[in-house]
Amino acid sequence: MEPRLTPVNAFVSLCRSGDGWPSVLEKAGYYLARLEVPVKVDGRDTVVFDAVAVRGDGKFILAMEAKSGSNIEQEQACRLTKVEAASVIRSGAIAVRSEVRPVLDVCFFGLWEKGERLKKGLHQEGIDLPLVLIGPDRLALEAGQFRDEELARAFSVPIQVDGPPPAYLRVDERSSDETFRELLRPGIVASMSRRESTVSVRVLAERAVPDLGLMGLRHQQKLLRRFEQAARTLAIELSDSIHLIERTAACPDAVLRILKSPEDSDPRGRTQGYQALARRSTRAPKEAPGQLTIEDLLDELEEGADTDEAGDDVEVPL
Amino acid sequence: MRRQLEQSFSEGTALKTWVLEVHPDQEPRAFLHEMVRGNGSVEPTEDAYLQLVRFRAPHVEFLVDHLEDRFWSFHTRDRVSDARPLLRGLVTTRRDVDWTWLATGHLESLLAQGRPLGAGTDFRGERFLPDEPEASRLQLRIGGSRIDQLLSSVRKDPAWVRALALDRVAVCIEDEDFGHVKEAVSREGCFAAAGDSLSLHQEFVRLAVGTYRRLVEAIEQRMLSWSGNPDSGRELSGSAMVIHFSQPLADLDLFVDSLFSSREPFRLWGVPQDGPGGMKYVEAVDLHVGHRLRMELSKSWIRLLLDKGCCGNTVARLASNLQHRVDANIRFEDPELQALLAPRAA
Fold it and tell me: Which of B2, B15, B63, B323 has the highest local Cβ count within 10 Å?
């Protein structure tokens, strides 16, 4: 996961339980309502919150701006302070479950290593919004304060975490070419394993990014072009296995034709075929032909044994 | 046909029942026809949910009960050594058929259903834990009623507790009204039964599959799914699932190299990418079913992120195989999943 996506993934994870990260927001009564919510300010400007959570009793709304870098833009920060709860509710089509006037908490989530500059930036601009920083082993409220006392209590001390948050979101327009390739590659392998003869790049992109179709058209097109570029690179790298048919006016989707699949081989050849597809990705040196790895030796040992899979012999003691 | 099965239950050889997880894309009879293609036939019976499947080579006859929409029972009186390779061939080559991967906790809970007769363990950690030679393999066959005591004493040794993965159990169930049945169950969902009550056998199978089905369905409820639109934002439901190891792995690199080598029993393909703090990110493919899944791994845990449309069997299979190759005491962080993985402990 690119570190840039850590803040938004952290926010999502704090709204979840059982996913390996502390469920601070969930325990405070919040549920994740929406991601990437565009909200009008003063009827003119638009701000896009990366994530919005709502407290179950409807009394508080938490709107988060993810900061992957270290700069605070003055205009944007000022706009954030002017957003009203009602605008977030309407723009995000959020159902308020009780007849209360919700209070809006706007906050920043940022990376620990950028924390000092973020705090300085907020101070210089006179912005007093909460700033939560995410580090490799903890997250903490480092500036400002939440209006919701439950949240204030929850963030009153640093919260220990075990590694980065789960990568619920793992790609965006700014992701590297390598990220797009590494998202596309398993899709091609999955198609090979299902013996598909052709698969469009759009289908592969939707399998890699299941929310692609819910994004704005312009955003979708940008991501699709990046996947197409990744497909071109992979078609060269795996030229003996796949062939890319570029999109045309008549056929608006680029298509990958699968020329060869490990599934065409016998069981041992099949495993080796898949291993070769992984090796090419890591560009590891090829093993010399005939040279047995420790894995092969273990296979040899197990070949005569009763099973290489689940319990082979079910003649259990009766 | 069900009555014939009932009447013949107490005669001759044991009845073997494999419960396979099936995702048919057509009506059951046509699906079975396609399964035996070129090597047998499918005949209807007077019961709409029972089909007689005859394989030619080797000659094996299955009575297939598809009353449960997803978990089909394949009954046979033919030899396991003939029947199992046929089913294994289907599981290996098809993407819509899989074993029922019972976990150690499932088998242990079945052992508690009656008088224990036997149990077996099968742990082979050499490939996954090469630097931890203290307890790398444990294959036991235990008979008698004091199975629990033996398992408890092995559990007291911290080196061996990680290797105590049940792969089969045998139990005798007696009921005043129904009679008795001796059941042997393997972790791939094969039930060998002998006795005088088919009903008890079927109830035993239903109990085992019911627990397993609940685990698979609970996993599927946690799969990630998206809704919404560009104007109001996107909604995400579902959650990552976390499996914790009982002891940290000594060498994560070796572990992931073996896990994603596309080999049996995991059959996972993936190219590990380095993450912070030595953890790994893997965009993996489950070659059993041809679906992708995301895994994040550290020495202490595995996070799983599956998109809606995947099969919960992928996680159940992974959990069962981890128990037999890496750590019999793995634990889901989510208490509901954990209770379904280890129902007896819960």
Answer: B323
Of A36, A282, A316, the CB nearest to B118: A316
Instruction: Write the residue in A34, A166, A191 that is nearest to B296 by C-beta.
Output: A166
Residue A196: closest CA among chain B residues belongs to which residue? B290
> Phi, psi at residue A126, to the nearest 5°?
70, 30
pTM for the structure as a whole: 0.90
Do A127 and A154 belong together in one domain?
A: yes
With an 8 Å Cβ cutoff, is A274 touching chain B? Answer: yes
What is the full per-residue pLDDT of chain B (346 aa) written as tens digits? 677 777 777 777 889 999 999 999 899 999 999 998 888 999 999 999 999 999 998 999 999 999 988 999 999 999 999 999 999 999 988 889 999 999 999 999 999 999 999 999 999 998 888 777 788 899 999 998 888 889 899 989 988 999 999 999 999 999 998 899 999 999 999 999 999 889 999 999 999 999 999 999 999 999 999 998 888 889 999 999 999 999 999 999 999 999 999 998 999 999 999 999 999 999 999 999 999 999 999 999 999 999 999 999 999 999 999 999 999 999 999 999 999 999 975 4
Q: Does the residue A317 lie in any domain?
A: no
Question: What is the number of structural domains in chain A?
Answer: 2
Residues of chain A with Cβ-Cβ distance to B298 below 8 Å are 162-163
Instruction: Tell me the β-bridge partners of B64.
Output: B51, B74
- Tell me if A172 is assigned to some domain: no
The ipTM value here is 0.89
Question: Rounded CA gap, B160 and B164, in Å?
Answer: 7
Dihedral over Cα of B154, B156, B159, B163: its sign:
positive
Counting every residue written for chain B, the total comes to 346
Check whether residue A197 and residue A93 sit in a common domain.
no
Residue numbers of the domain that contains A245: 177-309
